[in-house]
UniProtKB/TrEMBL annotation:
CDD domains: AAT_like. It comes from the Bacteria. It comes from Cognatiyoonia koreensis. This is Aromatic amino acid aminotransferase apoenzyme. One of its GO terms (molecular function) is L-aspartate:2-oxoglutarate aminotransferase activity. Its cofactor is pyridoxal 5'-phosphate. NCBIfam families: PRK09257.1.
């Protein structure tokens, strides 16, 4: 039976990781995969996570199933973290999911059930898993302009022009903060214009928020998502705990559906539970329990927020150092956008040939579209990258 299977295209980022591992050079630098790394190149278990796990290990008396939606305390804690009081709690239906990817998958399946003909509109570019899952589910997708390759900022006029043409009843996927892969984000005022437009056109927003706390702060990074939650009768929000809690492999995420009233919330909740049941039954619990423990214990929460802030400030300092170094080398402000971008990534906007030349000559690995993971750098490798960029592009 498996004779009929054909090969799948290799995941570009995973292929890049393999090439990096095979590179014998000691000086090699990995700016590929989207995992936070500290100055020594490690992805540490956060202090609060270690302590929460210690407590869970000591206190947990049963590993019986939770509920189909996961532990309600996890939903409450995450709804509070992401949405705060932007929407009444009884209008939110939510399920725990395996990571943010699981939340995206379940959101798309819910859309398919509720509006099978809807097209999902994605920013160009976006995280490659978005189109890949949509295609796999047999759903329709379209693109709206997002990134201006010249300024390396958001092409806001182009974006608005494209969104104006989105038909009523379709879905627009927006990144809540820290756009992946570009690092370029809308201002709050621009997001307000997008919200007004989508409302006017009766288009449903679908927010993917995978980096809350990695941009400007936990509160600042949730402004757009909260504004959307507060403005629409219906919206979908997929949140990941992988990055901000550093629990990538625990697969912890949540899908929140904003509904128009309590009755609709109840029915939507049933549909979300049903989707969990069909796809994997009960969602994973360990990571969710770690997150709940941290968010509901004032001391753990404070320590988590402090460590997250250190992480964020470290990335902001590396951004500034790289922008300064490139300013010094080019005598221009052409690379200032790196300091303005937010989150773990920046798209440099250099050619594929330059990306390859930097990989071969300098052993610095970035994704083919010139996305760099800022957290893959440290104080010593920033000048090497700056020099390599200049060499490969001039
Ligand atoms: N959305 C975006 C934009 C991402 O970058 C990621 C992680 N690469 C995710 C969602 C999902 O992450 P995870 O499934 O690991 O929680």
């Amino acid at each position: 039976m498996f004779d009929s299977l054909s090969a799948q295209p290799a995941d570009k980022i995973l292929a890049l990781m393999a090439a990096y591992r095979a590179d014998p050079r000691d000086s090699k630098v990995d700016l590929g995969v989207g995992v936070y790394k500290d100055a020594s190149g490690n992805t540490p278990v956060m202090r609060a996570v270690k302590e929460a796990e210690r407590r869970i290990l000591a206190d947990q008396s049963s590993k019986a199933y939770t509920g189909l939606a996961g532990d309600p305390a996890f939903s409450d804690a995450m709804i509070d973290l992401v949405l705060a009081d932007s929407v009444q709690r009884n209008r939110v239906a939510a399920i725990a999911t395996p990571g943010g990817t699981g939340a995206i998958r379940q959101a798309l399946e819910l859309i398919r059930m509720a509006a099978p003909k809807a097209t999902i509109w994605l920013s160009n570019p976006t995280w490659p898993n978005h189109p890949s899952i949509i295609k796999y589910l047999g759903m329709k997708m379209g693109e709206y302009r997002y990134f201006d390759e010249n300024t390396r900022k958001v092409d806001f006029d182009g974006m608005m022009e494209d969104l104006k043409a989105v038909p009523q009843g379709d879905v627009v996927l927006l990144h809540g903060c820290c756009h992946n892969p570009t690092g370029a984000n809308l201002t709050t005022a621009q997001m307000e214009q997008v919200i007004a437009l989508l409302k006017e056109r009766d288009v449903t927003p679908f927010v993917d928020i995978a980096y809350q706390g990695f941009g400007d702060g936990l509160e600042e990074d949730s402004v757009a998502t909260r504004a959307i939650a507060g403005a629409f009768d219906n919206a979908l929000i997929a949140a990941s705990c992988s990055k901000n809690f550093g629990i990538y492999r625990e697969r912890t995420g949540i899908l929140m559906a904003i509904t128009k009233d309590t009755d609709q919330a109840g029915i939507t909740q049933q549909n979300l539970n049903f989707l969990n049941r069909q796809n994997y039954s009960f969602p994973p619990d360990h990571g969710a329990r770690v997150v709940t423990t941290i968010l509901t214990d004032p001391d753990l929460r404070q320590d988590w927020e402090a460590e997250l802030e250190e992480t964020r400030n470290g990335m902001l300092a590396l951004r500034q150092q790289l922008a300064d170094e490139l300013k010094r080398l080019t005598n221009s402000e052409d690379f200032n956008f790196i300091a303005e971008h937010r989150g773990m990534f920046s798209r440099l906007g250099i050619s594929t040939e330059a990306v390859e030349s930097i990989r071969e000559n300098d052993g610095i690995y970035m994704v083919g579209d010139s996305r760099i993971n800022i957290a893959g750098l440290n104080k010593n490798t920033v000048p090497l990258l700056a020099k390599a960029i200049i060499r490969a592009t001039s």
